[in-house]
Each structure stands twice: as structure tokens, then as C-alpha cells.
Amino acid sequence: MKTYINEIKENDHVDSLFLVREKTLGSTKSGNAYLKLILVDRSGEMEGRIWTSADLLSGVFEKDDFVQVKGKAASFQDHLQLNITHIDRVEEEGILLSDFFPMTEKDIDAMFLTLMETGQQIKDPYLNQLLRLFWEDKPFVEKFKMAPASTRLHHAYIGGLLEHTLSVTQLIMKNVAHYSGLNLDLLITASILHDLGKVDELSYHRSFDYSDEGRLLGHIILGMERLENKIRELSDFPKDLALQLKHLLISHHGQYQWGSPRKPMTLEAIMLHFLDNLDAKMNGIHQFLKTQVSEGSRFSRYHPFFEQSFYLPPQKSETEPFNIIEEKEIEKE
Amino acid sequence: MKTYINEIKENDHVDSLFLVREKTLGSTKSGNAYLKLILVDRSGEMEGRIWTSADLLSGVFEKDDFVQVKGKAASFQDHLQLNITHIDRVEEEGILLSDFFPMTEKDIDAMFLTLMETGQQIKDPYLNQLLRLFWEDKPFVEKFKMAPASTRLHHAYIGGLLEHTLSVTQLIMKNVAHYSGLNLDLLITASILHDLGKVDELSYHRSFDYSDEGRLLGHIILGMERLENKIRELSDFPKDLALQLKHLLISHHGQYQWGSPRKPMTLEAIMLHFLDNLDAKMNGIHQFLKTQVSEGSRFSRYHPFFEQSFYLPPQKSETEPFNIIEEKEIEKE
Amino acid sequence: MKTYINEIKENDHVDSLFLVREKTLGSTKSGNAYLKLILVDRSGEMEGRIWTSADLLSGVFEKDDFVQVKGKAASFQDHLQLNITHIDRVEEEGILLSDFFPMTEKDIDAMFLTLMETGQQIKDPYLNQLLRLFWEDKPFVEKFKMAPASTRLHHAYIGGLLEHTLSVTQLIMKNVAHYSGLNLDLLITASILHDLGKVDELSYHRSFDYSDEGRLLGHIILGMERLENKIRELSDFPKDLALQLKHLLISHHGQYQWGSPRKPMTLEAIMLHFLDNLDAKMNGIHQFLKTQVSEGSRFSRYHPFFEQSFYLPPQKSETEPFNIIEEKEIEKE
Amino acid sequence: MKTYINEIKENDHVDSLFLVREKTLGSTKSGNAYLKLILVDRSGEMEGRIWTSADLLSGVFEKDDFVQVKGKAASFQDHLQLNITHIDRVEEEGILLSDFFPMTEKDIDAMFLTLMETGQQIKDPYLNQLLRLFWEDKPFVEKFKMAPASTRLHHAYIGGLLEHTLSVTQLIMKNVAHYSGLNLDLLITASILHDLGKVDELSYHRSFDYSDEGRLLGHIILGMERLENKIRELSDFPKDLALQLKHLLISHHGQYQWGSPRKPMTLEAIMLHFLDNLDAKMNGIHQFLKTQVSEGSRFSRYHPFFEQSFYLPPQKSETEPFNIIEEKEIEKE
Amino acid sequence: MKTYINEIKENDHVDSLFLVREKTLGSTKSGNAYLKLILVDRSGEMEGRIWTSADLLSGVFEKDDFVQVKGKAASFQDHLQLNITHIDRVEEEGILLSDFFPMTEKDIDAMFLTLMETGQQIKDPYLNQLLRLFWEDKPFVEKFKMAPASTRLHHAYIGGLLEHTLSVTQLIMKNVAHYSGLNLDLLITASILHDLGKVDELSYHRSFDYSDEGRLLGHIILGMERLENKIRELSDFPKDLALQLKHLLISHHGQYQWGSPRKPMTLEAIMLHFLDNLDAKMNGIHQFLKTQVSEGSRFSRYHPFFEQSFYLPPQKSETEPFNIIEEKEIEKE
Amino acid sequence: MKTYINEIKENDHVDSLFLVREKTLGSTKSGNAYLKLILVDRSGEMEGRIWTSADLLSGVFEKDDFVQVKGKAASFQDHLQLNITHIDRVEEEGILLSDFFPMTEKDIDAMFLTLMETGQQIKDPYLNQLLRLFWEDKPFVEKFKMAPASTRLHHAYIGGLLEHTLSVTQLIMKNVAHYSGLNLDLLITASILHDLGKVDELSYHRSFDYSDEGRLLGHIILGMERLENKIRELSDFPKDLALQLKHLLISHHGQYQWGSPRKPMTLEAIMLHFLDNLDAKMNGIHQFLKTQVSEGSRFSRYHPFFEQSFYLPPQKSETEPFNIIEEKEIEKE
Prior knowledge:
6 copies of one chain form a homohexamer. Chain A is an alpha+beta fold. In chain A, about 40% of the residues lie in helices and about 15% in strands. Chain A has a 5-stranded mixed β-barrel with strand order 1-2-3-5-4. In chain A, strands 6-7 form a two-stranded antiparallel ribbon. In chain A, about 40% of the residues are buried. Chains in contact: A-B, A-C, A-E, A-F, B-C, B-D, B-E, C-D, C-F, D-E, D-F, E-F. Chains B and D meet through helix 8 of B and loops of D.
């Protein structure tokens, strides 16, 4: 069973799985070799030391490996250190990712099924087929179900990209009928695909970071490439439909300074931008408030990205849902 | 029956109601007095001339009066002019406002009823009572039902403020359940009241413009004053609830540069800001596209406020509404 | 007599008043309970430890209490620590605030009297009466005399709000005659009231910070509420005068990005904005230069808010005041 | 006697001085040469035509000459035109500049004397001498007394630079004693010299415009050159004093984006920047309000530079000056 | 032979080719149909009227057709009008584009050859082959040789894209050796391809404008698509090389606000951005100065995009080229 | 021989030259005086202690002196400390600057010679003479050869100003012929002089910092003063030439916000600005990449000034220089 780092106390005997973030070979004053490790799991990080057979054990595992470790926690200069007696490399397959990374609290497979079924309702044959091509692309689907939606700002956990994508898609469905004349098929397709480039932009197998191509191109360009590739497989995909879909994808950040090479120019693009932004903000601030409000205060610490604090009201009333009065009666005869 | 200015052709005999935008007394080369008028209705404006008894008739009406006019349209230097033979002042009560100003296409009373009924579902007794106080304030309600939501940018027509308010309120109701833990009573109250200061900020009886207090204080401050006044009538209104409600009102523009003295600091304030902004943009651009796309083109003219053009896609598919897959099954057990 | 924290040396026996910023119950390796305190006064902060009867003494006082402490200073890991033998809670009334917070160097009562007498010279009966209402509001006056003008940037000390208010008012009096046609009564009233919302925005009884309503609404809105309340008590206060006064209050920050929901639109509002800003900058930079210029240098450290350094010239000549040549002779005959 | 262009009516016989802004030789359908002129004075501009002896008269004067003109005003296509029968070039010496350009309403010589006498009170021998050098520079003084302070924004009239300079200097004198420790000699010298480069930056003999060196270098650089030249004449001028004075000059615009290569870094530089800016704004908006508020309204037209409208309050109370309560009594004993 | 519109004078008999910008059918007061045309060529535009057989001739040509026109120029209300007697539609093939649009002053085929030969020097086999694929794409090459580089700002003439591309490529070659360690093959390829999306972004067969896909996607995205398509044809194109090349393409605008979804992150990308920008500015301002400096002045009119005027110095010295001293001797031994 | 600080290990006996950055007299618990020093050289800094005869030795040297030190390195609380037994002040003349500061890798005298010879090719007699005046100014030349070009951003090493100046001058020569009509003499002179004010702006004898006049005036103003002084020595220097040269100097930062009081208004000024900026960026990022890319990564750390990371591509192909195809053949006949 996993022992979490933030639960370890002085003198504890530990026997558990960790990820090796750093590994350095040192030598003591008396000239003996020792290994200094940084071990991490989802609860935090701690130092580990291997004092005996360091040279030998150094060959057993590398930085970024998962390891099974036995040892005893000791206090050294105000912080805990694990004096390791046994260490073994463990293959990634056996690992429970949620022991090492934050994970969505929802069921990944259920979310994915919901998203697929939503897409199957699309009437436009080209858009319907386009989505099917994506779902049939197994390597893509695997990444799409695991990727976080960002490294820090919102949905920054395993499954976050899928959770955010589904959430935006459901927001679109709830709001689209409020305005007449919108192309719902197009909007649903675009909301499902809007962040697809993030499967290539982010890396998340050892920590949440950007991939090289993520930094150099960004998820808008990477998403365009994947979209282009699928559209090309559908030989008679209407040019104008492709144009609109691509426009929704590249403009969904809404502003040049947020990395969109175009501002939204259609009502559909505006709606996608707003609801995507709303969902990212609501999730990001909700996650932030969970950890950043200290006891006895109702205000969060300063959020460097948003350049402000946030407020957690004292208590919320539990109200039942409202009846939405039908709008049809409002139209003039 | 009203004859609209944009329908008048050379040699037409006209007998209809107009609003006098300008009135100047001139004299011909031969020394005779004449009156030069600018007449307007919702379809446009035209010049009118009174060549006989100008001095006498000048006393009959003033600039900004509604007048019943008889005359004949003549062409003069490339544009039409109305040579007026009879003119009479008409009291405002008899006027159909929609002849002179753009109006909402929806039924004002039906919209108002819907909004009131929505408010009555609020469980919180203070917020419920607060809204009732507003609805019992007859002069306020009258203005609230007639005011436009802006002079040009969105819902710039009689009834626009009410239409926008109802629309934002319905958007709130559709989206609030998507996120857990939000204070729905507070959000609905805030969405109903968020723009209430516009009844004082805008003047719309002769043209859509800003009032003096609108320019000097703006609708956020003016709305705060009205809100304060009503809250004071409810002697035991909870201080914290008032604080949150006021915060939603003053932060709903979202950014300092858009005139909000505070940025949204709660999840409720963020949602209100986003959905208010979405509704204003969707309506504003929709209205703009109706008039600013020239034939044969799919692009609008440059919009000076948004600093871009907009695109009107060639055709929209008519799709039936989607089934929203229930989210509950997604929660992990 | 007060012993200041920055004067305490190793082995000193201390018997003095402090404020408890933090209080934590811990246990030694041998399992005994002890109390770890952070004690503060205006000169700094230090750690305190209670090794005996910790459980018992823990009930005697709380975080944010003032306490009388006896103990001996010992060096521990490079910094001083107070080993406390006696501790007692002290009521706030007996406290000299200037022992714990920075204070204005001027006489608070003399400043307040000067400000009141200045206001009494106002000829306009409504404005004169309005100010009198504020001075008769005892709870307001008490806060107004104690509040700082900001948490850090300028006049960040007890009495700072009053000092800044008087200073701006005197600047207005010195400059207003320089330009003809300005409404002096209005300007003096506005300068006295421009920052009144700060009595609610800031909290300063334990440290200088923002109150909840200060963060959520800000002093411009809070000041508007207090102003509105007083104006309402004066039944026939002229609407236009109220409008102008409110405009001066809400526009005195001068720019949207500095939190003003309106930019100054009258000559009076422009003058108030400039002289308020001048006074804040002059005081803020003067205070900053007192502490931020290191010996041997004429340049301050980088000021993060102003994003620059400041320069302290080597010496100033002591010149007698100049005679201001009368301007009247300059007017053309 | 001067006949002003805005007073000329149809059929008037005109015999007056004008400035020739444009001069074009044309030919009628029948092939006869005629001259088409644009004549201006401070009240406006009008077209003039010379129908006879056009070739001959064309040699008598050039564009940008002052001319004495005789002719009769006739109406042509909705506007007036002067049919000229006699025209003669007039030397500039005989011209009253105020007939052709807006002028300060104050007495230029009295203002200059006041400024000089103010400077003579400076105790610092180097600064005192420096100013004397400027006043002994006759060509400089002549320009300094005539130049406007800008082409449009503020003090945009003959004598405006002097009026603005004196005004800022008097503001400095009124405000400097309010803060202790400021170098008054330095501040007065800097306020007198802060805009001196404008004598080279602006041209104003035919219209208010920028000179070539004004456009390419600007008045801050041009002023630095003149200041450098005078300082060099004073062989032992203290280096540190020169450094501070130059800093005040180059930083007086306050911000990089307003063309200052440095932001104000001393309390003196901050005060000069604020009071200079205040004086420019107060004058500029006062001048703007005189011409830009249409009858019946209290709001000016939109000011493109300030990106806002301004408000002219209905009436101002005439109040007597206030007694400024002495500050000394406020200092704590 | 072509008669240019700006050469036509009253009473001229005209027989020449024009482009029909607008075509409207009207009817005279007497009820006869007539056609009102706007005719354009590269020298300007003029009105044309067809008074006889208007109905019949209206079927012969459409708006945006090229037509051979016979008629006589007459003066009507201050401007010239062409009364047309014969009109015939002309096929586009026979048209000399330079009669209707501004054209590069250089030889298009020679420029293209130079560019191709430059590319052939590339040693990297993948990049070399990639360029060859583009040159073998006949429809692309045809557009690439004709397209302007922008609608107005720089190289806004037929052949402008090619001229700008060659110019940037030559700048790269001249500057790349100045810095060590740069990947020249990559830089040359990127400079040749950096604006390739403009062949799809701009339309220039009737006037210089944006295509629909140009507005909705922009040339950076359109260029990425063309680049992706060609890279895909080269099966073993190295992934890292493709990544770098794409990064150079999408970052060449240098800033988010200029439409780049990424800022330049390599030394190569920085150099390409700077030299591309330099070339665009030098050409754009040079073209602007040719038309925007009025006689007798050395300053251009205000340039709305750059928000400034430009200066044309009085005369340039003709100097012979300098010898560039070899840098090698500078390296330390 | 110099022992570098970053090479010293525990128990080493050290006998070497260092610079004293800080010097503090302390006393041990037993009451004995000791000296605590911070010693630096170009490789880093370390603490030194003098335990015996501290009072006496304290008079031997001061902060900012160079000293010859003997002692032994000991480990104290995790870092090394030098226990000093002998210390002597050393005169600056004997010091090898490159032991203490980063230095250009090029030969300073060779660079200077190249720059001078380049200037001698200038045909314009005034510009040629102007440069000669600068080279004859020995104190200037000495500073010009040693000064860094900035404290941190680019060419931040001894000789950096000269290296950057030569580099920009060579870039100008390589690019100027690419555009016709540019004034090469003017451009070369301006590129040689564009940063000359940095000899006064920066101080670099003890560390790289700004001088007082550097902070208060900046190198653009300081450069203008030096330029003015030299131009004044050349009695008949053409006014227009001086104007253009000064414009190039003051506008070379390109934007107000980068401290230029004017934006570039001529083609020459635009070219100088771009190539100066290019050279600063290329050098600055190249230097940054040398130290800021950690092993195993291709991305640099975040660069706070540029607000981004940079990318170091995996390997560069070594390509031979390209043949630049002659442009002449491209001109149309």
C-alpha cells in the first residue's frame, strides 16, 4: 500500500513506491560514496539518502524512474530525510497514476462515452464523420483521455482536458438555443475539438510541463495540424465548412495577446470563446480557492496570473433549481 | 396612418406625424421669412420648408415637438424636400413610440412578467423582498420597461434594457447548475439588477443619448444608489449579503478599463460578468450584421468599437436540439 | 515602560507589552507541550517560547491580543528568542497605539480642528451643512482621525488619512485662486471628503490591511455610500450640486485603470485629481526615501509600485520664501 | 481699420489686410487667366478671386505674404467669395500680429517683467547668473515672449509660452513651502526654463506649426542644447547642480510615452511635472470649453486627445478667498 | 493603346480599356433608362454614362469585367464624365495587368530565377527537396509570382510578394555570417517560405483585398497548411527540422499582437523576424514618401498605421561603397 | 598567479588577488574583534575572516580595494570560508581587469583600429572630421574601449560597447547597399556614435552599474552632450547635417517607451534602429543561452526581460557560405 510523503513522520519505517525526481552521487568527508535522491509522489517531495552500496545501487535506477523503497525517516537540520536500505526499479505499467499526479474526480470513461454520444447526434454528415475519425484514432484517444488541460491554471490534473472539453460542450448545448440562427452542429464539433492540440502540447508522464513542440508551436497550431490531417481523409469535406471550423479553432482564445492568430469573427466563434473562457476561469479559481484561502480568512492569496485576490463567501444557501419560464410566449404575435 | 420618411418619393403628397429635430428661421433673397426644419422618424430624416406664414407658424411648435404635417415632396439639388402647407403640434401621449424609435421585437409586458415571476422563485427572503420593492416602484418600472440597454452597441432600442436583463437572467439559470456551490438566489437577483442604473444613465425620449448624470456618474454608480435606497428600506437586510450583491453589481464590467471600480472576486461575479458580456456581444454583433453586410459579401464593414470585421456564414443548417446527456452518471462513485 | 523589540539583546531580562501576531501549541521531543509565539511592536517582531505550564497559559490569551510579558532573551540558531516566564492579557484601552503602529508626526487634534475650521468658511449653505453632519457623526470622526491613508504607499500611519486630507485641502486653497471661475466651496468640500471611504476600506487595529468591504467594494464606492446617506438627511440639497460633488469623489483617481469609474470631466475634478495625486506621491516617496537609501548612495532601491528608483540630492540650499509678484498687474487694461 | 473675415456679408465692400494662405493661377472656360486666393485672418478664412490683370498682379505678392485688398463680397454656390479689384503686398513690420493669430489676453511685457523679477530672488549665485544669461540673449527673449506653448492643446496663442511659464513658476512658489526640504532655487529655475526649447520647436509666423528641428528633435532636446550652451559660459557651474537641473528639464513630461527620456526621480522633478501638467490641462480644457460647448448643452464635444467630453457646470458661486489656517500649530511639540 | 484616366481632359475622344468597378441602371426624369458606370485603371477612376440602348448594352458586360469603351469626356458639375457610345467586354487574357494595378518595377522572372537558384545552394537534402516541391507546384508558382505582399502597407503591387521574399532572403544571406552558429540552410528556407500563405490570403485580380480565408485564417495559418502538405510528401523529413521550420514561419511577426501565435524562440527566428520587419518598413515608408510629401515640405503627411510623420532629407550624398574590414583579424589569438 | 574563487576547495591554501566587495568589523562572543569580508573575482564570491590583529589590519585596506590575500579555506555551515592570515592592498594599475570582470573575447585594439579605419572612408568632410575629433579625445577613447554596452542585457563585459559599436557599423555596411538612396556617410557616422553616451552612463571599475548621471540623464542625453560639444568645435558644420545626425542618435531606441524622445523619422534612422536592436538581441540571447540552458534540456530558463524562454536547437549543420546572386540583373530594362 502506498505511503504518502506528507504522512511520513520521524522514525517511521517506510516501504512504498516513489518517483525519482533527482539523483546525485556525492561523497562524505571520509570519502565514501552516497546517493542523494529527491523522491516525489502526489502529496509532496522529500530527500532520500543511500549510505551503503551507493555505487552499486546507482546502476539499478535512473532519474524519472518509479522505485520501491525501504528505509527509515530521520530528522536532519529541521527537515525529514529517508535513510534508504533497499531500492528497486518498478515498471510504469504497475503504477497507479493517481498516486503520483492529481486526477480528475470524475470517471474518465463515463465522460468520454458522454462526449462521443453527444457527437453522434450531429446531423451534418461531414462533421459527424470527422469526429468518428478522431475516435477511431486509438493513440489520440488514449492521450485525449489522460492529458491535463493546462500545467497550472485550470483542470491541471490527469483527465482535465477531457473534463474541460465535455464541460464546454455541455455549456454550448445549454446556451446555443438561447440565440437563434446558430449552427449547432458546427459549434458542438468545434467545442469537442477546440483544445485537441493539447494532447501534443503538454507532457504529463513525470510532471506537468510543456513538450518541445508545445513550446515552439503551441496547441492552436498543433490542433490545426491534427484537424487538417483528419479533414484530408474525408475527400469531399466542404471547403467552406472546413474554413469555419478552422476559424473557430484558431480564434477560441479570443485575443491576439492570448495567442490567437485571429479574433472571433462569427457569432459561433464568439460563443465558443466566451464559454471556453468561462469554464477555464470557473474551474481554475475554484481549484485555487480550495488551497489558497487560509483559515480564518475569506480572501485567497494573491493570484499572480489574474493579478488579484478572490473571495470565498461565508456560506451558500442551498436553493432548488428554478423553473425557466418558456421564452416562446415572449415573441410578439 | 404613418408615412415613413424613407418611403416618400418626389411629388408625393404627405400627411403624417414627424419629430422636429431642428428648426431655423431664415429669409429668402427677396426678404421673406421661411422656416427650415429637419423632420425625423425611425426610418430616417428629411428637410422641410414652410414658405408661407412662417412667422406665425413658428410659434405653433418647437424643436423636439411631435408635429402633424401636410405638404408635397419636391426634389431640390439632388435630394428631397417637403414643402409644408399645414403643421400642428401633437401631444406625446398620442404617439406610437415605435414609429419614431427602434423597438424590441419582443412583447415588453410578457418579458416583464417573466422576469418578475423568475424573481418570485427566489427563496432567500431578503433578496425576494428586495426585488418586490423594485417592482412596486412604479416610476422605476415604467423606465425599466422602456429604456434601451445602450445608445448604440447592443439592445439599442426601446425595451432593450428589459430584453437584455431577461436574457442574462435566463442564461444564468441555464448555466448555474453546471457548477456546484454557487449561490443561485444571489446570482438571479444580481442579474436582474445588474444594469438597473441605465434607467437613469440614458435618455431616449427624443434620441438615444446619455443624461447629464449618466455622463458624470455612469450606470454603475447610479445603480448602486438605487440599490442602496431599496436595501435601506429593508431594516434587517444582512450586511454580508448586501456586500456580495453590491460587489456583483460594481464588478460586472469585469475590468477597470471598462469602468468597473472592482474586478470580479467571487465565482458568482465571474459568471455574471461573462454571461452579461456574452449576451451584449451576441446581440450587438447580430444587430450589426443585419445592417452592415453589403450584398454579395459575407464580411461586415469594419466595426470601430470592436476594431474588426465580422463574418456571416453562407447558410446555417437547421438542426434539432441535442439531448444533453445527464452529468450525474459521470461522478465517480 | 515599553521595551522595543529591536532594542532587545541576548541575555536581557524583558518586562514589556507586545502584540501576539501568532500563537501555536507544540510539543518537545520528550513530549512536553510548549507555546510558540510571534510577538510584535512597531519596531519589529521576535519569537517567544513558553516552556512551562503551556497548556494552562494558552487559555489566558489569544492571537491578536495585547500581552504583558516577562522573560529572558536567548540566542537560538542565529536569532534571538524570548523565553517567557509570565504572560498576561492586557485590555486594548490601556495601550498606547504609537507603541505598536507607525503614527503621524503631527498633532491629530490640531489637524482635525484646522480641517473643521476650514470647512466652516464655506458659504454655500448646503455644503457647509453637509460637512457639519459629518463632524457630528462621532463614530465616523473617531475613525477618520485614526485611519491611515493606505496600507503601504503613502501616509501609511495612524492619522495618515487626516493628514493627507488636510494637506490636499490646503493645496486646493493655495491653488484655486490661480485659475478663475472655479467653484471653491465645491472644491474644498470635495477635498475634505474625497477619501472618506477609507475609514471603511482599511483595517488598522492589529495591522494595516484591507477590510472585507474594502476589498469587495473599495473606498470610492464606500465613500459614495456615506456621502449619499448624509445628503439624504438634508432634504432640499440641490440635485445638480450633489451630482457635481459625487462626480468629484468618484473621478478623483483620474483614470479607469486606477479604479475610478469616471474620468474627471470638470476643471474642479481635474484640479482635485492632480493635487491629490501630487500629495500622495510627495509623501509616499518622501517616506520611501527615508528608509530605502542605503549609506554612501544617493539612489533608493527599486520601488516596485512606481517601477523606478529615486534620487536623494546631496544637499539642499536653505532659501527664504520668495515674494509672489501680484498677478493683477499682468492683466491687460 | 481691420475688417475681420467672419464679419463680411454679401455685397460688402471690403478694404482690409489679410494673409495669403494659398494662391493659384487658373483659367476660365473662355481661356482668361484668373487668380484664386485663400485669405485668412484670426477670425477665419475666405476665398478671393482676381478676374482682371491676374497675370500682372500675380507678380505683386506671393503665398504667405500679407496683402492690403479691396473688393466686393459675392455669394457663390452657398458661400461668400471676395472679388478683388486692388491688391498690394504689405511688409510684416506694419502688421498687428493679434489681427492674424490668437493672442494671450495678458500683457506680455508685464508677464516677462514678473518672471524676471521672480528669477532675481534666487539666492544660489549660479542659478541666478544662469537666468541672467538667458535674459541678456536678446534673440532668445524676443522668441520667448512671442511663442505659443503648443500648436493646439494649451496656451496655443502668441505669448502662450511666456504665460504658461509664468503660471507654472507661480504655482511652484505657492506649493513649494507645503513640503519641507525642497530646493526652491532649483525648482524656480527649472520651472522658468522647463519649456525653453519650444522657442525652436514651434513656428508661428504664418500659422502654428512645428519647425523641422521641432519635429526631428523635440523641445526637450532643443531645450537641453540651449541650457548646455549657457551653462558652459559659466565656467565653474557646479556639476551636481547642472545634473539636477537637466534632470528636471528632461523628465518634466513625466512618462516615457509622453516623450520624456527619463521619469522624474527627485521630489523636485515630481512637483514640476505635476504642476506643469496641471497648468497645461487647466488652460487647455478651459480654452476648449469656451468654443466646444454648444448652446443648450452642458457637455463639450468629444476631445480627441483626451478621449472624453468635458462638463461645464451650470453656474459657479462667487466665493471670497478662504483663510488658510497656519500649519505651524499642527506640528507636535 | 491605353489611355489613362488621369490624362483625360474635357472634350477628349476616348477609345481604351477600363475595368468596370460599379454598374447601375437608372432612369432619367423623362423615364429613359441609362447606365451609370464607375470605370477604373491604375491611374484613377471616372464616371461613365451610357444614354442610349442602355437596357441592351447592360447585358453585354458585368461589374468587374474589363471593357473596351468609346466615348467623349464632358464636364458635369465640376468633374469629368465619359459619355459612352460603344462598349464591349474584353477577356482577361488580353489584359496587361500593369495597366490596371501597380506593379513591381523589377523583372518578375529574373527575381524568381534568382530565388530558385538561391534555394538550390541549400545543402540540407530535406530542405533542398522541400523547396523543389514548391517550385514544381505550377499553380502555386503562378500565384507566388503575381501576388502583392500586402493590400496597402508594403510591396502593395503585383509581384510584391516575390520582391519582398527575395529581398528578405538576400538580407539573410548578407547578415547570417555576421553571427556564428546559425543554421543558414534553415534560415534561407524559412525566408523563402515565410510569407507563402499570402498567395491564399490576398485577392488581387480586381482590386487588392483579402480573400475570405485570408480574413478568417490569415496567412500564417494558410502558410502552415501549404507547408504541412509539402512536408508530408517527403516521407522521412526529420521531425525536429520540421518543428524548427514551422516555428520560424509562425513566429515571424514577432509579437502576439501582430498575429504571431508564438514569439521567436531561436536566434534564427529572431533574425528572420527583424530582417522581415526591416524590409517591410523600408519598402513601405519609401513608397509612402514617394506620394505623401507635398511640394515645398520635407515632412510626409501623418501615417495612420505608424502614427507619425516621416522626413525626407533635402539631398543625399552619393558615396561609393565602403570596404568592409575583414573581421577575422579581430578574433583574439 | 590568480586562484579563482570557484576553484577553491576545503583545506586549500590560497595566495591570490581579490576585490573587497564588503568589509565589516565584528566581535566574537568572547569579545575579540574580527573582520568579515566579501571577496570577489570574475568567477564568484566567498566570505573571508580575519581573526587576529583585526583592528590593525582594518586600517590597511577599504571596501572596493584590490587585496593580495593569504589564508586557508575551511567549511563553515555548508559553505566555504577563507581564514585570512595575511592581507595587503594592491594598486589598481597592477591588476589584470579580466581577472575580475567578464571581458570581450575579441582583441580590443584590433576592433578599435577597424572602427577608425571604417570611419576614415567617409567622404563627407564634416562627418569625417567629426569622427577624427572623437578619436583625438584620449580620455574618451580610453573609456570607449573599456566600457560594457549594458549592465546585464547584452555585451555586458569590458570592451562590450566597442564590440557592439563595431558590429552595428558592419551590419550597416552590409545592408545599406540593399536599399537605394540612403546616406551611407551619415549612417556610418551615426552607427559609430549611436551609443557613445554609455561611456558616461555606466560605471564598471568595481562592478557593472549605472553612474549617477547615467540614472538621471541616460545615455541618449549624455551622448547628445558629447556630440554637441564636438560639433561646436567644427565651426561651419552644416545645420541640416547636424540635425539629421542628432535625430539618428536620439531616435535609435525606436520607441518612446524604450526611452527615445523621438521615433525614427527617416529611412536611415529606421535602419539604424533595427540593426542596433538586432545586434543587441542576438548577442544578449546568445550570452543568455550559454549559461541558462540546463543539461538535458533544450529550453532556457524564463528570461524576465523578454518574458519568455528560448530554444537551443539540437545541432547545427555546418554549411558553406552562399553565393549572393547579383541583383543588378533583376532591374527591368
